[in-house]
Automatic annotation (TrEMBL):
InterPro entries: TTHA1013/TTHA0281-like
Gene3D superfamilies to which the protein is assigned, alphabetical: 3.30.160.250
Protein name (database record): Type II toxin-antitoxin system HicB family antitoxin
Organism: Methanocalculus chunghsingensis
Highest taxon above the source species: Archaea
């Protein structure tokens, strides 16, 4: 079982979720955090079933940070 880091963003109209470290575009949305998380879990399973080991871009991500800067 692979451990995959997920980013979940809260927007005014719901939640968007996407993984880090997979090739291609994998995204899910939901009205709640839990819906977005369940959706991305399903989308990731489908993506890995479709592409196999080639789906992984970089398996050595140790931590993920979110930072904010002013530009």
């Amino acid at each position: 079982m692979e451990r995959i880091k997920i980013i979940i963003e809260k927007h005014p109209d719901g939640y968007i979720a996407y993984p880090i470290g997979l090739k291609g575009v994998v995204i899910a949305e939901g009205d709640t955090y839990e819906e977005a998380l369940a959706g991305i879990r399903s989308a990731i399973h489908f993506h890995i079933e479709s592409f196999g080991p080639e789906a992984f871009e970089n398996n050595d991500i140790m931590e993920t940070f979110v930072a904010e800067i002013a530009v």
